[in-house]
């Protein structure tokens, strides 16, 4: 698959100015197809975790490839429906929401995933056996990586503990609830198939108590490379191992079920770049800073998760390599990259920040009254503006100006 050329990126930065997010449609398609085809002889269904990147054009791209959606709020459910998804293609996996929100989701006809016994009881009382639901279980498998993104451990707020299964069964039986799926999502950054399989085994065991299952959903956590030498999930190996284990399980269960996943990062991370401009070069006693026209307001992952995002100077790729720290313009220590070797950066150069497809624009904000960037989609060697840069008036949209 051909990468977007620096030439195209420079054209985009000239036409739409910076900062600007650029997404590569072919890369998204490639990742989707690669993941999908890693599973053999199973009915695998991918539900794209739309919280990673939810521009409506990206959602439509997913829909055209045959993906479903994983939505974590009623607003995401509504956006998914607006993008043209059928309700049954949307998995709604909320956490700590008001029961009214779950009622709205049932009314819209989407697949409901319940992660709390109190909610399950309310669900049973209201719907009995009339509307099935999936159960989000927490197998307490520790995914590797940063503690903020491990959600399967014992202190996690996510899911119903596997140790509470007996209680779950009693609620389900007494209220006649139809459980159509079992779900787990152990968090981002799962390194190998064996971690998955340990969690999967627990779900396979739990399945014996739920005779009406239609699917098993193993969430996500597929790791992509952010820098050279990073350990990444071996998708093909994982796909083969999980497919085998799943087919053996279906055999024992007595019926073929569908196998669901909810990838976010794996599908869109590498497809996105944030283009920023070097505003100033600032030499201090210890460091040469490149101050850019962006910061934690547009890309918070480096500060929030300590994430590494590779940075390139696309305006001077052949320049002499020098050592820089790349920082934002926000009144916070918003370092985008420490001690990076870059071809000499001159004021006005365009820097490309990689892996900015997932949890990048979708986590952006207006801190310091800064405006959110534009978004551009590159597809078949053409590029399209898919979101305008915010305007100053946007900051006042919901404010009520009074003369008090
Ligand atoms: C965030 C999330 C995902 C996606 O995780 P990635 O690491 O981006 O693939 C999947 N399922 C649920 C329930 C999530 O909250």
Which helices and strands occur, and which strands form pairs?
Layout lengths: L5 H11 L3 E5 H13 L6 E6 L6 H10 L2 E4 L2 H9 L7 E3 L6 H10 L2 E4 L2 H11 L5 E6 L21 E2 L3 H11 L3 E5 L9 H15 L7 E3 L17 H19 L4 E4 L3 H4 L3 E12 L4 E5 L8 H4 L6 E3 L7 E7 L7 E9 L6 E4 L20 E6 L2 E6 L17
Helix pairs in contact: 6-7, 8-9
Helicity, in percent? 25-40%
Number of contiguous helices: 11
Secondary-structure element string: HEHEHEHEHEHEEHEHEHEHEEHEEEEEE
Structural class: alpha/beta
Q: State mean pLDDT (0 to 100 scale).
A: 94
**CATH class category of the largest domain:** Alpha Beta
Kindly state the number of beta strands.
18
| Radius of gyration from the alpha-carbon trace, in angstroms | 23 Å
Overall shape: it is globular
Query: Span between N and C termini?
Result: 60 Å
Q: Which stretches of 5+ consecutive residues score pLDDT under 50? A: 145-149
Characterize the main sheet.
9 strands, mixed
What is the annotated CATH architecture of the largest domain?
Alpha-Beta Barrel
Q: What would CATH call the homologous superfamily of the largest domain?
A: Alanine racemase
Bound compounds: pyridoxal-5'-phosphate
**Number of structurally distinct domains:** 2
Beta-strand content = 15-25%
Enter the CATH topology name of the largest domain: TIM Barrel
